[in-house]
Amino acid sequence: MSSAVTKDERPDTLRLLPPHLNDVTVDESSLRRFLHGLPGVDPVGVEERAAGLATRSIKKAAKLAAIDLAISMVDLTTLEGSDTVGKVRNLARKAMLPDPERPETPRTAAVCVYPDLVPTAVQELAGSGVKVASVATAFPSGRSSLEVKLAETRMVVEAGADEVDMVIDRGAFLAGRYGFVFDQIQAVKAACGPARLKVILETGELATYDNVRRASWLALLAGADFIKTSTGKINPAATLPVTHVMLQAVKDWYAETGQQRSVKPAGGIRTTKDAIKYLVAVNEVAGPQWLDPYYFRFGASSVLNDLVMQRRTQLEGHYWGPDYVTVD
Amino acid sequence: MSLSDLWEYAPAPESAAVGAIKDRYLPFIDGTFVEGGGPDLVSINPGTAEPLAEVSTVSAADVDTAVAAARRAYTRVWSRMSGAERGKYLFRIARGIAERARELAVVETLDNGKPIKETRDFDVPTAAQHFFYHAGWADKLGHLGLGPAPAPLGVAGQVIPWNFPLLMAAWKIAPALAAGNTVVIKPAETTPLSILVLAQIIADADLPPGVVNILTGAGDIGSTLVNHPGIDKVAFTGSTAVGRHIQHDLAGTGRKLTLELGGKGANIVFDDAAQDQAVEGIVNGIFFNAGQVCCAGSRLLVQESIAEEFLTRLKNRVETLRVGDPMDKNTDVGAINSAAQLARINTLLEAGREEGAEIWESSCALPSQGYFLRPTIFTEATASMRVSREEIFGPVLTTVTFRTPDEAVAKANNSPYGLSAGVWTEKGSRAMAMAAALRAGVIWDNTFNKFDPAAGFGGYKESGFGREGGPSGLAAYLDTDDEPVVGGGLLSHTGVL
Amino acid sequence: MAHLSIPKTYKLFIGGAFPRSESGRTYPVTDAKGNFMANAALGSRKDARDAVTAARKGFGAWSKATPYNRGQVIYRAAEMLEGRKPQFVELISTSRGSSVRSATAEVDAAVDRLVHYAGWTDKLAAVFGHANPVSAPYFSYSAPEPTGVVAALAPAESPLLGLVSVVAPIISSGNACVVVAAEADPCVAITFAEVLATSDLPGGVVNLLTGQPKEMGPHLAGHGDVNALDLTGADDELRTTLAQLGSQTVKRVYVPKGVPDFAAAPGTARLRAFLEIKTVWHPTGALSLAAGGGY
């Protein structure tokens, strides 16, 4: 029941904004007024809601469905300085066949690598339906010139990446230079061509939930296909309450524009239990129409092994150990 | 077909066997479970409308026996025991509740109908916390600011409602015992089971016989108890109508009285609120325990400039509430406690319709058996409508709009009740000014339905008087009358040193 | 030629003014020897109603006044009383037949009582309020607030000290009151009203009715806009009746446990009787996401 992620069947993500939203992006001060006019987020309230939803008890058929869905949403990721061609090949094979013992196990959504390893991933994954995603734009800090960021984006798209994971300049965002960040995202989006753009907010550096909401809207206004929590290089990475805020943002965006955008928490999601809590949040905060690999992804690596093990447990009725799944 | 169509949460029922429900329960008098002299009652499981257990109830003579036992225990044992020792008994009870938490949660959910999520995560742990908190006060009463050694009152007669059976028992028993009183307590007719499990925990803690006596029965037994001449202090939680009667009956007796009665709490959302959290707060305020909460935020006041968008968000959120089997761990809204309560709510819903309020209800499916209601919202319910004035005590929210803070305060305070209110604004000065202007005993800024044994709780106006929790809650169980009287000496009005 | 004295017309004290009873009724007041002293207004049901209306109005301003300001006003009343000491000594010794010495002692004690409560206004929240250490990320505090409109029956004993001892604790926390003076001592009560009227006390904070407690008490106890009753001056039977009436709107009722010894230092029971404890919760939470969550 793996769900093929084929953007061709989806509405074009380069869309026209409703006039009232177009107006807010005309200049820096309009953007500021708009972003600071968004309703605030009460941290205690959002954390309580997240904690409350995290107590959902997902069992039996619902759990198996959740595991399969979660596997199909994984952006299987390796972003180490020590990454090798061999490691990426292994990862690609694992993405296509997460559980060799049970080949019916869904494929992951994508493999996510550094720019220089995109050709390897493209080659390995050709024809599989598993997307190739690449980080770009001076990942993970984003501290480079726009020219360099655009050049890197073009490079990975030309190399065959289906998806580009960019980072925003948090320094500029925190300094209130929203127009600057907006322009960069818009420029990178243009450079992506047909590739889908994931905009990493690096929420662990944004200090407040209010900023998470503002950055989410800023990215959506600038054309982000996905809003993504984290690079994985900063602690804390994805958290449930931060993801709640972002899910609410895409839900609100949909209500305003009719455009359904996507969310990707990344980093810190290690267990099936974690993944299911996120799916519950997707289901109940954004809505069931987001329970789809096109609209929700996990940026993760080790969670896949746990999902595979739990899948076997569900099917076979006993627990498995780590020696029975492949180590990356 | 998309995966989302397949992802229905499978039922995740808690095991009823954990509750170890017995066929028959007995009142607890003078340290033993005894057959009462009254007619048996059958406790119904509101989630199924089926009988759950038989309960022996007491007679008026049993009330005499219990009050005498409490007096004996007070005079001979409890009033002579050091505060530190009293406290250790309370600590034992706190631990006992924690150890049997899962069982108590199941018993409560089966007997009351509220979701297992609530009993498991709120009622039972908070009950344990109440005993733990008050245990620590027992040897520190001199630090309350009520004199160096404030005296207990004697025997406390307590009557509690069905909406938080175990938690209300803890709210009543723990401070009474910590202050040095003994207790005769009557649970509600429809929810006697969890307090009788607590009785077993109390017995297992070796609390001296007679210090806590639990009398089962209906309103007549409650009336006999609060009017019993052997009682020194009456504490009642329940409806304002019954509270008035008790206050009337006790007039001139000199018996100390505290009342925790009804409410019609306003939950006020300003246009600068953190809207998503405000939606959560409104939902929590009126659908927690299916709105069967005295301090429920049953009146939504929303600023006109955001009203339309806010109500849309609210309705969308209410649609996601999972209503149904209270034993399912994923149920958000459980059953109404009894057929009688369901009928009362329906009467008011009908009144709302007849008075022309626009009614909206969640499209959720309801179980085919048991006492259930869909979460309901009356939009533009004008102030004169019954649904806007009377406590509905069910999952029913009324909404009105306002334009200015003054108007919000005027509308919120326009009620004979004054138990709770909520304020949603990101502006700190407004939150504080609203908290000061609202005539209610508990104000929640940017939150709702928060409770803690360290924080006093109680009403203004017809929501009652006296506090429960915190230092002011203990004062309700101590002789705090320090006015010098002619020829007075140190004797308190109870005649006990 | 000797000066022919001008006797005072004793009226009611409502909303800061001195109206006659709307009923037009009066009753004769006699001194300790049974001689005619004055005609006092015989307050009626409608006077009681007007007084409650005035008190509700007075409550608005008085409860919002700063504690410091309330303390200053009550202290000012003490100053005014001190200044009229000879007048009160004469009035008390005439009406009660007590010695000048004991009348002086009563006036002194009444002055001191006002000073005592003037000092309470800005201590109440510190003494009866709390910061609540709740087990969740909230700042929670409980603070006392005034109950609202209190109807009080002044005691028959110690005409000035009894009245002051009843009124001062009620108003020091910000309540407004309607007081029915002791039936036998309307002159002392209304003269005390003159003290209040010249003390910067906003109109309506204290309203004094003279007449029969048995007549006006039930109207006050049954009045829906009265929040609390102080039944110090009622006998047992009247106390029960009024407390029963008060239960219809769940009024707070203060009944002393015996005959109050107003000469002794007061406790705090009277203060606490007309305070409501309000608990407020406000979320705190972590300042920054950098701390991470438990998720």
Q: What is the distance, rounded to the nearest whole angstrom, between the alpha carbons of the first and last residues of chain A? A: 24 Å
Q: Element order, helices and strands of chain C?
A: EEHHHHHEEEHEHEHEHEHE
**CATH hierarchy, class of chain C:** Alpha Beta
User: What is the alpha-carbon Rg of chain A in Å?
Assistant: 19 Å
Quickly give the CATH architecture of chain C: 3-Layer(aba) Sandwich
Can you tell me the number of structural domains of chain A?
1
The backbone outline of chain C, from C-alpha atoms, is: elongated
- In CATH terms, the superfamily of chain C is Aldehyde Dehydrogenase, Chain A, domain 1
Helix content of chain C: 40-55%
Could you please describe the fold and organization of this structure?
The complex is a heterotrimer of chains A (328), B (497) and C (295). By secondary structure, chain A is an alpha/beta fold. Chain A has helices at residues 19-24, 28-37, 43-53, 60-72, 85-96, 118-125, 146-158, 170-174, 178-192, 209-221, 240-257, 272-286, 302-316, and strands at residues 74-77, 110-113, 131-135, 163-167, 196-200, 226-228, 262-264, 298-300. In chain A, helix 11 (240-257) links the parallel strand 6 and strand 7. Chain B is an alpha/beta fold. Chain B has two domains: 16-261 and 463-475, Aldehyde Dehydrogenase, Chain A, domain 1, CATH 3.40.605; 266-445, Aldehyde Dehydrogenase, Chain A, domain 2 (3-Layer(aba) Sandwich). Helices cover 39% and strands 16% of the residues of chain B. Chain B has helices at 3-6, 60-78, 83-99, 101-112, 116-137, 165-178, 193-204, 219-226, 240-250, 275-287, 304-319, 339-354, 386-389, 405-413, 428-437, 470-475, and strands at 24-25, 28-29, 32-33, 41-45, 50-55, 155-159, 182-186, 212-214, 233-237, 256-260, 266-269, 299-303, 358-361, 376-379, 396-402, 417-418, 420-424, 442-445, 460-461, 464-465. With 295 residues, chain C is of the alpha/beta class. Chain C is 42% helix and 18% strand. Chain C has a five-stranded parallel sheet with strand order 7-6-5-8-9, sandwiched between helices. Chain C has a three-stranded antiparallel sheet with strand order 3-4-10. In chain C, helix 7 (186-197) links the parallel strand 6 and strand 7 (206-209). In chain C, helix 1 crosses helix 8 (213-221), helix 2 packs antiparallel against helix 4 and helix 3 packs across helix 4 (100-118). Chain C is elongated and about 95 Å long. At the B-C interface, helix 9, strand 18, strand 19, strand 20 and helix 16 of B face strand 4, helix 9, helix 10 and strand 10 of C. Strand 18 (442-445) of chain B pairs parallel with strand 10 (275-283) of chain C, so a sheet runs across the interface.
